[in-house]
Amino acid sequence: MKKFTIFSINRLSSLLLLLVAGVLFSCQEDDPTTPAEAKAAPVIEAIRSMDPNKADSTFTQSTLGSTIVIKGQNLENTRSITFNGYSASFNTAYASKNYLMVRIPEQTPTVATAATVSNKLVVSNSKGDATFDFTVLPPVPEIQAMSNEYVKAGEPLTLYGKYFYFVKEVTFPGGVSGTNFSTLPDGLSLTVTVPTGFDPTKGDVIVTSESGKSLANARTKLYSVGMVSNFDDKNPFGWGIPASNITNSAPGINPLEGKFALVNMSLPGAYGWSNDKVINLADFGGGQIFPTDPASNYNPEDPIANFEARMEVAVANTALEGIQLQVMTQEATDKEITANIDLKDFVRSTDGRWYTVAVPLADLVNGSTKLAKYGDLLKGNKAGVKNYRAVIINTNSADVPATIAIDNMRIVNITK
Predict the structure, then answer these.
(1) Hey, what CATH class is 9-137 in?
(2) Which one of 47, 161, 311, 390 is at 20 to 30 Å from 113 when CA atoms are compared?
(3) What is the CATH number that goes with domain 142-213?
(4) Which stretches make up the IPT/TIG domain (predicted)?
(5) C-beta atoms surrounding 191 within 10 Å
(6) H and E: helices and strands count for the chain
């Protein structure tokens, strides 16, 4: 099987660029404005790396933004270079009879931006063209969100993001590979079956494609720590949660595990209020409901920007346009600080499937009042009561019937 190697200009220093150019290319004028008349049409024999240590390696694909060396004949008077029909800029000072250096433009059409591409590299001079089969790959996969961080082996997990093309493997924390993965033609999502043996404490979900591996970020970790309430064995229930709001069943919604909180009502329009649309976690005895363990994740001195409020949300038969989820807490002067997100930005279907919703704690604000560090959240209000509230808000003018479930309300350190 032919082995492909992917190269990026970002890995090379300017010094290496100049060194390689000096080694590979004959001396030319500093800035020739027009290539001289060619004696014969160009010929492309191979594509090589800019790295001198890999100069003997050849390949037939590379990513956007990579710099490659074209090896062939009659290249010194090249007038144009195109990738999939898109023109690339190049310096004729770095063109010799047998070598030509060029950077693949980021704007080059790939399967990420065009339904069909030619997968052709074309070098032209005054005598003709040379065409070479060459695949320009999109950037490495980028995971921007996961459908549900609270998954178990055997369940489907959908990843949302960009550039899910030519996927070879999906790796779960602990180094085990997912099975039965599939992607949509637009490359914006990937669904995979969660494998047995994964350990959410040991890393991230990583997608490997022909372009390379996705990077770990705040959205690539599966649930493990930070629970405030799972509505089963960890239940600091407070005001706003009547017994009828805690259930293990709802029309069109199956539980993740055990019980969940439920908002099942006609949401009053124009930001109207109702206690039945509020899920409030509080221990009015002054107990600490926010996570402090492990200490490395929940250092009181860490900036509040390191933390997010997260929860799983499932929606059944509800029009989500104009429906928001608000997260609230009280700070040390008793001010209620809040942040709102549009549910449709996270909940991608209304068929009862569960999705993870994330709200940065740094976005909680009341005028100029906000939290500075994690310890500010741990203090609670003047009386020492800690509140973690989720409210479903209807910004539409008319009432909206809604069935919305919430589970696993937690605080997550996104830097760990």
Answers:
(1) mainly beta
(2) 47
(3) 2.60.40.10
(4) 58-131
(5) 17
(6) 2, 29
For residues 367 and 355, give the distance between their C-alpha atoms in angstroms, rounded to a whole number.
30
SS3 sequence, 6-27? CCCHHHCCHHHHHHHHHHHCCC
What is the per-residue pLDDT for 56? Answer: 66
Name the helix (H) or strand (E) containing 378: helix 374-379
Element (H or E) spanning 87, and its range? strand 86-87
| Alpha-carbon dihedral 395, 397, 401, 406, rounded to 10 degrees | 10
Question: Under a CB-based contact definition with an 8 Å cutoff, are residues 39 and 74 in contact?
Answer: yes
Residue 397 has pLDDT above 90, yes or no: yes
- Domain 227-413 superfamily per CATH: Galactose-binding lectin (2.60.120.430)
Among residues 62, 68, 58, which one has the least CA distance to residue 3? 58
Residue with structure tokens 């030519």? 166
How far apart are alpha carbons 330 and 92 in whole angstroms? Answer: 65
Mean pLDDT across the stretch 147-174? Answer: 95
- The domain ranges of the chain are 9-137, 142-213, 227-413
The mean pLDDT of 50-63, rounded to a whole number, is: 78
The least confident of 78-92, 231-245, 246-260 is 231-245
The phi, psi pair for 23, rounded to 5°, reads -75, -40
As a whole number of angstroms, the longest Cα–Cα distance in the chain is 90
Pairing of strands 61-63, 135-137: parallel
Single-letter code of the amino acid located at 353: R
Pairing of strands 67-73, 61-63: unpaired
**How far is C-alpha 334 from the chain's CA centre?**
36
Measured distance CA(110)–CA(119) in Å, rounded: 8
Residues 305-323: tens digit of each pLDDT: 999 999 999 999 999 999 9
Alpha carbon distance 361, 364 (integer Å) = 5
Element (H, E) at 376: helix 374-379
Same fold, 142-213 and 227-413: no
Pairing of β 67-73 and β 43-48: antiparallel
Whole-angstrom distance, CA of residue 92 vs CA of residue 77: 8
**Short-list 142, 204, 150, 148, CA closest to 172:** 204
